[in-house]
């Protein structure tokens, strides 16, 4: 599986494009839909779905344009079912960037293991940064996409609506840190890291 990271928008949100055999998944398309489309065209990737780790504005800004362009569905945790269309809940009203909204998700994650095309992955509930935060584990590749839960030597903020620091720490220690040390962590912002390094060196934990 090929993993492409595009840092998008004014906050530099990581959008990941996962691809196999010219089919792809788009994770957290936060902004700049044209850049995502340009990459998909360049690599001749046909996207199958949009996966959202959570519904903050900087992770959903390009969702509608991509849904319309490719006639694909967006998946989200049901705990944030109303967030995409609500600038208060998704946080865009709290930043000087203008209101950012999207139509509601097409589907909500309702199982622990999901398959889309040739992609199979596990969905881990990792709330704390937001109430419906999830992480995606691809066991064959030994990677986890952690959204804004765990960063390289940092953790997600918890001062926005629905944030809870105790839940965030529990999500990291009791969920993500149960993954093998060798797993690579692809976070929602900043560079990639791995479970072993964060377990040993993350100053917030």
UniProtKB/TrEMBL annotation:
<dbReference type="InterPro" id="IPR036866">
    <property type="entry name" value="RibonucZ/Hydroxyglut_hydro"/>
</dbReference>
<dbReference type="Pfam" id="PF00753">
    <property type="entry name" value="Lactamase_B"/>
</dbReference>
<keyword id="KW-0479">Metal-binding</keyword>
<keyword id="KW-0378">Hydrolase</keyword>
<dbReference type="InterPro" id="IPR001279">
    <property type="entry name" value="Metallo-B-lactamas"/>
</dbReference>
<dbReference type="GO" id="GO:0016787">
    <property type="term" value="F:hydrolase activity"/>
</dbReference>
<protein>
    <submittedName>
        <fullName>Glyoxylase, beta-lactamase superfamily II</fullName>
    </submittedName>
</protein>
<keyword id="KW-0862">Zinc</keyword>
<feature type="domain" description="Metallo-beta-lactamase">
    <location>
        <begin position="12"/>
        <end position="189"/>
    </location>
</feature>
<dbReference type="GO" id="GO:0046872">
    <property type="term" value="F:metal ion binding"/>
</dbReference>
<dbReference type="InterPro" id="IPR051453">
    <property type="entry name" value="MBL_Glyoxalase_II"/>
</dbReference>
